[in-house]
Amino acid sequence: MKFSTTTIATIALIAGVLFGYTFTGFSSIKAQLIASANNSGSANKTGGNMTTSGTSGGAKLHIEEAIKALEGGDKQAASTHLTAAQAAISGESDQAKMHFDEGMKAFSGGDTNGALMHLKAAMQALG
Length: 127
Prior knowledge:
By secondary structure, the protein is mainly alpha-helical. It has 2 domains: 1-40, no CATH class; 55-127, Four Helix Bundle (Hemerythrin (Met), subunit A). The protein contains 6 helices and 2 strands. It has a two-stranded antiparallel sheet. The model is unreliable at 21-28 and 35-55 (pLDDT under 50).
C-alpha cells in the first residue's frame, strides 16, 4: 500500500500533537511537512505562527523563526533555523541572499544585533 506525501505529513503531525513533541527541531520538521503537503506553490498554508507561500516560504519561515529565537536569546534554536534557511534561500534574490549571508557572519561572530538587522532586511527583500 502506497501513502501520499499529504497522508504521511498528516499522520506525522497528528502523532506529534498526540505525543507532545514540542522541542525546537520538531517545529522545523512540521513546517517542512506542511510546506510539502501544500504543493500548489501559490496558495498560502497557515498553521500556528507560520505562513508559507511559493518558493520563498521555507526561507521566510526559518528566517522569521531565527529572528524570534535570537530576540528571545535562544542561540541554539536560531542556529537550527538559520541552517534550514540557508538551504532554502539559494534560489532567492541577490539582495535577500546578501543580507542573509551578512546576518550569518554576524551571528557566527557573536553579533546578535548585526545578525538581527541583516536577517530583518533579508525578510524584507523576500517580500
